[in-house]
């Protein structure tokens, strides 16, 4: 009886707690082990042992609605639940460092708290360093974002539209990451000032990795190793400067870079194995810029390419001027190759080189053609070779006969020599004298 009474009291107490301003009684993430909230209500979790942090939009252990930042370091797993950021009006920063398993669910970081979209409103800064992102769902990151910076991380399983409908973006930087299993439309339909993809390794960049992205200043792809750049991987408009530099690209498909630029394009110091026909044909110039400034320069400088034909380099001649300042063909020099590149060499005052096997370095295709190719050059070399053979045969015949004669002489000398009867004591001198005498007689 007594116990039942206690139980009833407990139940009614719990009912009271639950029905009263319910949320106030529940703990927030600030109460989790390894986490705290500072006076500006940034959520800071600094794990020193295996620990999973779940970021919830509501319920017990939710992220408080006043949170200004989410800063997580060293935890084994961080899981952003859907709609996490929707009501976090004060949120400005998200920083993830040294996390072994990050999962960002659909719309977890969809954040558009202001009724009127404007770049004057504050935006999010998303920073991920030395972490493994194992899932980046569709629409994971949307809305008002200033910067997205991901460095030294591994990013797997990126669904379409992972970064989409962003507003007011200044910088997107992906540096020294390993990306694989990336689906189409990774970055879709937004404007950013700069976009940088630098260093690291990518298995395959899908078609429309950047889809309908306006870049108003610099578009740069630098120092990455990539197995495959698909057709229309970069569907980009408006950059003032395009730099594709120092990359290792195994396969560059036709129209890999589909860019409407407002300035020059530089394709420099890249190593490409398979350079498809028309890989750069999708590059063209913005109409306004075209009418004011005219054609823009497409500079192809110091690239090393294994499989490429002269026709691979076709480009949009109405809007661009091509300058080839250095193109090393990783192909052994031969006259057919030289002839094939002659046409391009005539049109563009460029320097194309081929691999000169004999000396183990690259040699200008034009120089090779001048010194080794052409009808006259070839017959000339045939004459030289035939001449050399004739001279060699003659020389060896002469040598043969001379040696034979010498041997015969020696035999005769030997026959004459044993004649020591009368001059036994001075034999040596006499033999020499006689030998000389005999030579002149023969
Ligand atoms: C996390 O903990 C480490 C070691 O205890 C400390 O050095 C570091 O400053 C902490 N970081 C933050 C953001 O509190
Ligand atoms: C990167 O993160 C891992 C844990 O995911 C950690 O063990 C390692 O020390 C970190 N490296 C650096 C350079 O901080
Ligand atoms: C050219 O690219 C190579 C890698 O292929 C890099 O090591 C080198 O620093 C680059 N040179 C310049 C001048 O960018
Ligand atoms: C280059 O293309 C050829 C023919 O399509 C293919 O067999 C080869 O594997 C490609 N090379 C690389 C490094 O992918
Ligand atoms: C030209 O390319 C080669 C091979 O990638 C590289 O070693 C060299 O540094 C480059 N030179 C310049 C001036 O970029
Ligand atoms: C060259 O660019 C112009 C303007 O963007 C475009 O209309 C035209 O079709 C392009 N030509 C080729 C061959 O792609
Ligand atoms: C040049 O081609 C050979 C095979 O034909 C390949 O092994 C080598 O890696 C290539 N070099 C470069 C710099 O692409």
Question: How would you summarize the topology of this molecule?
Answer:
Blueprint lengths: L1 H18 L2 H4 L9 E3 L4 E5 L5 E4 L13 E5 L3 E4 L12 E5 L3 E4 L4 E3 L12 E6 L2 E5 L4 E11 L2 E5 L4 E5 L1 E14 L4 E19 L4 E13 L2 E5 L4 E4 L3 E5 L2 E5 L4 E5 L3 E4 L2 E5 L8 E2 L1 H7 L2 E6 L1 E5 L12 E5 L2 E6 L2 H13 L4 E5 L4 E4 H8 L2 H42 L10 H15 L1
Parallel strand pairs: 2-4, 3-5, 4-6, 5-7, 6-9, 7-10, 8-11, 9-11, 10-12, 11-13, 11-14, 12-14, 13-15, 14-15, 15-16, 15-17, 16-18, 16-19, 17-20, 18-21, 19-22, 20-23, 21-24, 22-25, 23-26, 25-27, 26-28, 28-29
Antiparallel strand pairs: 1-2, 29-30
Helix pairs in contact: 4-5
Bound molecules: 2-acetamido-2-deoxy-beta-D-glucopyranose (7 copies).
One 2-acetamido-2-deoxy-beta-D-glucopyranose binds next to loops.
Describe the structure.
- The protein has helices at residues 2-19, 22-25, 287-293, 335-347, 365-372, 375-416, 427-441, and strands spanning 35-37, 42-46, 52-55, 69-73, 77-80, 93-97, 101-104, 109-111, 124-129, 132-136, 141-151, 154-158, 163-167, 169-182, 187-205, 210-222, 225-229, 234-237, 241-245, 248-252, 257-261, 265-268, 271-275, 284-285, 296-301, 303-307, 320-324, 327-332, 352-356, 361-364.
- β28, α4 (335-347) and β29 (352-356) form a beta-alpha-beta unit.
- It is built from seven helices and 30 strands.
- It is an alpha/beta fold and 442 residues long.
- The chain has a domain at 27-307: Leucine-rich repeat, LRR (right-handed beta-alpha superhelix) (Alpha-Beta Horseshoe), CATH 3.80.10.
- It has a 30-stranded mixed sheet that branches.
- The site of one 2-acetamido-2-deoxy-beta-D-glucopyranose has 4 residues, from loops.
């Amino acid at each position: 009886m007594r116990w039942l009474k206690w139980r009833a009291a407990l139940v009614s107490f719990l009912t009271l707690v639950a029905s009263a301003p319910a949320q106030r009684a529940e703990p927030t993430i600030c109460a989790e082990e390894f986490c705290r909230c500072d006076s500006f209500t940034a959520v800071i979790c600094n794990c020193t042992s295996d620990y999973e942090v779940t970021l919830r939009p509501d319920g017990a252990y939710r992220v408080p609605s006043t949170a200004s930042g989410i800063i997580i370091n060293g935890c084994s797993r961080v899981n952003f639940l859907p709609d996490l950021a929707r009501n976090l009006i004060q949120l400005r920063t998200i920083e993830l460092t040294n996390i072994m398993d990050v999962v960002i669910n659909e719309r977890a970081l969809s954040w558009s708290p202001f009724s009127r979209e404007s770049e004057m409103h504050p935006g999010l800064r998303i920073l991920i360093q030395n972490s493994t992102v194992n899932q980046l769902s569709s629409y994971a990151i949307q809305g008002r974002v200033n910067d997205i910076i991901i460095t030294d991380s591994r990013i797997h399983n990126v669904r379409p539209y992972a970064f989409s409908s962003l507003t007011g973006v200044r910088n997107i930087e992906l540096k020294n990451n390993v990306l694989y299993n990336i689906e189409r439309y990774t970055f879709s339909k937004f404007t950013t000032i700069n976009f940088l993809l630098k260093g690291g390794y990518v298995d395959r960049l899908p078609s429309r990795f950047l889809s309908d992205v306006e870049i108003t200043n610099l578009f740069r792809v630098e120092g990455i190793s990539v197995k495959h750049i698909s057709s229309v991987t970069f569907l980009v408009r408006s950059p003032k400067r395009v730099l594709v530099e120092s990359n290792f690209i195994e396969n560059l498909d036709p129209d890999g870079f589909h860019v409407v630029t407002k300035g020059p394009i530089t394709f420099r110091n890249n190593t490409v194995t398979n350079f498809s026909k028309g890989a750069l044909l999708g590059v063209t110039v913005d109409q306004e810029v075209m009418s004011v400034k005219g054609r823009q320069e497409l500079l192809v400088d110091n690239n090393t390419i294994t499989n490429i034909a002269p026709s691979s380099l076709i480009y949009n001649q109405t809007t661009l001027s091509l300058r080839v300042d250095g193109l090393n063909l990783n192909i052994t020099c031969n006259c057919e190759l030289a002839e094939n590149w002659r046409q391009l060499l005539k049109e563009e005052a460029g320097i194309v080189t081929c691999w000169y096997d004999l000396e183990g370095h690259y040699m200008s295709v034009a120089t090779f053609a001048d010194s080794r190719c052409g009808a006259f050059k070839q017959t000339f070399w045939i004459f030289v070779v035939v001449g050399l053979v004739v001279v060699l045969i003659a020389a060896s015949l002469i040598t043969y006969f001379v040696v034979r004669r010498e041997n015969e002489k020696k035999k005769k000398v030997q026959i004459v020599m044993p004649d020591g009867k009368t001059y036994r004591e001075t034999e040596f001198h006499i033999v020499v004298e006689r030998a000389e005498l005999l030579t002149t007689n023969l």
